[in-house]
Amino acid sequence: MVDSTTRWRTGRAAGTGLILIACYATAGAFQVLVWNPQAAVPGASLDEIRTAMASANESLAVPLVLAWAVIGVLLAGLVLMAAQRDPGLRVSTVVRINLLLLVLAAPSHWFASFPAGMGIADTFATTGGDHTPWGKLLYLVSAVAMIVLVFITLLDRRRPPSRRPARP
């Protein structure tokens, strides 16, 4: 039987994960759609950048970037729903899933941002990479999430079976 404190902690971990992933998704979308284009083409407004890109048959791939952000938040929302519905779901499982979502956010963000970066590069004869530090910061968050995920997984495996929380 799972007590109310454990259920509260599981729900809190899932809610915290949802907030962190929503912040990551929001920052990632702004990075691709606003901050990076403005940094790549200093002095030009976002409308001027989009107009020039449209004239060159390029785009920032807004639907792809928004789909990336929404899917990440929806997945974190599913973790929260599972935490609320499954009384046997462990806090460590919720934390691991949310960390994994943060880890996977980096390669999927790169995939979602690639067309926008190439569109900027082709239109304005710049490089297709990040022109602001925010993309690297997002990737750093994902790297830290991976290190923490590996650490807590190894730590849990090193515990003797008698000290591990019981699985339902």
Structural account:
Helix 3 (about 60-85) runs antiparallel to helix 4 (about 90-125) and helix 4 (about 90-125) packs antiparallel against helix 5 (about 135-160). The model has no long low-confidence stretch (mean pLDDT about 90). The longest helix is centred in the N-terminal third of the chain and has 37 residues, at about 5-40. By secondary structure, this protein is mainly alpha-helical. It has five helices and no strands. It is elongated and about 60 Å long. It starts with a helix and ends in a 10-residue tail after the last helix. The chain has one domain.
List keywords for this structure.
elongated; 5 helices; 168 residues; single chain; mainly alpha
Arithmetic mean of pLDDT: 91
Give the H and E element order: HHHHH
What share of the residues does DSSP label as strand, in percent?
A: under 5%
Q: Quick one: biggest sheet?
A: none
- By DSSP (H or I, 4+ residues per run), the number of helices equals 5
Radius of gyration: 20 Å
List segments where confidence is low: pLDDT < 50 over at least 5 consecutive residues: none
Termini separation comes to 8 Å
SSE class: mainly alpha
The total tally of domains equals 1
Query: Helical proportion?
Result: over 70%
Shape: elongated
For the secondary structure, the number of strands is: 0
